[in-house]
Amino acid sequence: xxxxxxxxxxxxxxxxxxxxxxxxxxxxxxxxxxxxxxxxxxxxxxxxxxxxxxxxxxxxxxxxxxxxxxxxxxxxxxxxxxxxxxxxxxxxxxxxxxxxxxxxxxxxxxxxxxxxxxxxxxxxxxxxxxxxxxxxxxxxxxxxxxxxxxxxxxxxxxxxxxxxxxxxxxxxxxxxxxxxxxxxxxxxxxxxxxxxxxxxxxxxxxxxxxxxxxxxxxxxxxxxxxxxxxxxxxxxxxxxxxxxxxxxxxxxxxxxxxxxxxxxxxxxxxxxxxxxxxxxxxxxxxxxxxxxxxxxxxxxxxxxxxxxxxxxxxxxxxxxxxxxxxxxxxxxxxxxxxxxxxxxxxxxxxxxxxxxxxxxxxxxxxxxxxxxxxxxxxxxxxxxxxxxxxxxxxxxxx
Length: 398
Prior knowledge:
This protein is mainly beta. Helix content is 10%, strand content 31%.
């Protein structure tokens, strides 16, 4: 009989390599925030919930600073060609990743999505099971070699400073998770305002009568003791910004990223890792679960994932109506990849792996991954001191 033991190797910390992400962008709304538009057609459209997407993606945050920098450069450079060159020079080095959230008094210990191999019982904050990939069984199993069943929480979050605790094989030493995020949706009727003044926008009809512009807006209320958090490669200017349309304001603070988090981001992700941001792979016409180059025995062993999520963003432009990107599907956060070949840190991944429509999606933290060695189990000879047993039914063909 074989025994399955979860690898408990300490991740290989790379203290020499400099982290791509050096700053933390902390966003505190001054009131409500709103879900972004541009989602795919769905039955939710019929009940006023279309376009609900919260927290805002890293692409939205990038657009916020792109608009701000464009305004600043236009004031200094009237020539169109030079203006575009200078704006490009400011924007190209900027990388963002997120969204995450944190408690306002400890933004450095922000929360990231819990990996899918951590099963949390409904209504609790404890990890009940931790699954590992057994190459012998070709299954995801717990420590006793079984595939647990039941109802588990989805969409839980884990503090970044607890990430390395996931390598423990003792369930009692695994970290607590947060089973629900600190925001709630509050849809409400909202009038569209004029661009030049804070008055309700009216539309004049053919019969010279006026029609109002009341619509259902997807309001999101963030807990006042919490904030949204994003990673950034370069320092951005702190201050008040318009974020979310209709003149909604947020307070933006830029802080140096803690060294321990930088070290974690520069570790080799190795043979198993989890996504902490959505991943968009494939071409402009086809979304896939992984980069095309991984589609061979040399790279990918297996994937633990869920249904993909719609993903879209505005490309910007000079017109009044900004162009929308192609509709794509993103691999959800928490997805775990098990590889045949160990990989370098995410920041060293080949730019060609990432789709490109306008800028490369790597600039927006597409598929940011952290190492998760405990996601791989390996077989050893039977040890009477352990109860980690690979049962015979694991070997039966699926």
